[in-house]
Every structure is written in structure tokens, then in C-alpha cells.
Amino acid sequence: MAEKIALSKKDRLAVAWRHQFLQGSWNYERMQNGGWCYSIIPAIKKLYPNKDDRIAALKRHLEFYNTHPYVSAPVMGVTLALEEERANGIDINDQAIQGVKVGMMGPLAGVGDPVFWFTLRPILGALGASLALSGSIVGPLLFFFAWNIIRMAFIWYTQEFGYKVGTSIAQDLSGGLLGKITQGASILGMFIIGALVQRWVSISFTPVVSRVVQSDGAFIDWSKIQAGADGIKSALEQFASLGANGLNVEKVTTLQQNLDQLIPGLAALLLTLLCCWLLKKKVSPIVIIIALFVVGVLARLIGIM
């Protein structure tokens, strides 16, 4: 009896490493098939010593394939298990392998977007941006290393999970677990984004609503401040009691100050909701970014912001 051909950990690591470049050969006809075929080459070389068998295996993996690039890892793991069984004489045809791929890629694609694009990446991006705004180099480094460590670990361990579980993983995808994961991830992502809108989005309307000349004693009269240390001491004492308004003879109230008294961050929230609505209407993010840039420049020139 011939010795069973098995994929080693080194072989599976090679596949996982290549799988990071799944979208490197994206095309409109078969989507991610080129990247998928490139990823599985190390396993095909190990499982099929015969050249004709290798060619046939690569051809069946050039069929249509498209899903989220990270949650594609468990699909790859199951496919590796099927190819290993086939190489050892188990009756598994091309249609069965392609059927498992197609059956898994759809449900998993619905999980990948809310978990990675709408939850994990915004959270890490917000943390990194917050640190970067304070002038810390830790911000971009935190985002870069945390994102890539999580991404690569997820690809490896979910591929291993798919490989060990084999075809039985496909039975779990029709249950309600994926739906709950998707819903929970979406809620968490929206909660985090909503909580950080005030920090991410900054809008300041500069039009003056009112100008009120302050009464005597409500501001620092610099003409009455003595020279020397005593004068400095007196100015500091008056500033401590009057606050920032004491520096000006005239109290100026802007539109932004009135809005902040009603609902702090209202303008930022409305702008965020507008962008979400435009994205829902399939407006390109690039168009939205350019529009915000143009509106910001024009508003600044006019004197609105």
C-alpha cells in the first residue's frame, strides 16, 4: 500500500503566505481565480508529483472565485483537505471541490465586511489616529502592526481550522451562527463609529451671531494695569476670575458656539450621516472625498467656516 501523501505545516504555511495576495490578479471575468490558483500552488506540487495531474488541478482552480480576501482562508483550508483526500485515492471530482468553494465563499463574504472593514479596521484606525493627532509616532505604528498581526494570524488559524475540520465546516455555514456574528459585528462597528464621530470630524462655522460690548469690570482694562511685577500679578488675578472672555472688550458669539450649546457635535454628526447616506446610494467614496475637499475650500474662502 502506497504511503499516504500529507501536507506538512510548511506546505500549509506557504499556502497561507501566498493567500495574502489573493486579489493581486483580480479580473472581471473570474474575479479572484488567479490569486486563488497562485495560493494553492505549493500544495498542488506536493500532492501531485505527476505533471499532468498538476496541470489538471491548476485548471480546476482557475474557475470563478470571489469572496472577502481574509475570510477566504477557511475555504482554502477545506479545499486543501479535499485535494489531499483526492490525491490519496478518495473519489472526489472537480464538481465537488468547486461546489464546496462556491457554497462557502458567499456566506463568508457577508461576514468579512462587517467584521474587518466596518469594525476592526475603524477601531484600530481611530486608536492610531487619536495618538497621531497628539503628535505620537506610536499611532501609525500601532495601526500598522496591530492590523497586520491580526490579519495574518486570522488567515493562518482559520485556514488550519478549515483544513482540520474538512468538508464538515460547510454544514455549519447554513445555520444561524453567521447571521448572529454579522449582526453583532455591525452593531459594534456602528457604536464605535458613532462614539468617535466627535473626535474624527471637526466642523467650525465662523459667522458671528452677536457682538456685545462688555461692561466695566467684565474685562481686563490694560490701560489701568501697572508696569512691572505688580501689574503682571494683577492681570493674572483678573484673568483667573474672568476667564478667557476677560481678554476682550467685546464678547463675540459665533454660530458654532450656539450650536455647541444646543447639541455639541451636531454638525459633525449630520455630516457623517450624510456621508453614510451617500455611500448607501452607491456614491463613490472618492467622489465624496473630493466633494468635501471642494466644499471645505470654498466655505473657507467665503468665510463660512
Structure description:
With about 300 residues, the chain is mainly alpha-helical. About 65% of the residues lie in helices and about 5% in strands. Mean pLDDT is about 80; it is low at about 170-175. It starts with 8 loop residues before the first helix and ends with a helix. The protein contains 12 helices and 2 strands, in the order ααααααααβαβααα. The chain has a two-stranded antiparallel ribbon with strand order 1-2. The chain has helices at about 10-20, 35-45, 50-60, 70-85, 95-135, 140-165, 170, 175-200, 230-240, 255-260, 265-280, 285-300, and strands at about 210-215, 250-255. It folds into 2 domains: about 10-200, no CATH class; about 210-300, no CATH class. α1 (about 10-20) packs antiparallel against α2 (about 35-45).
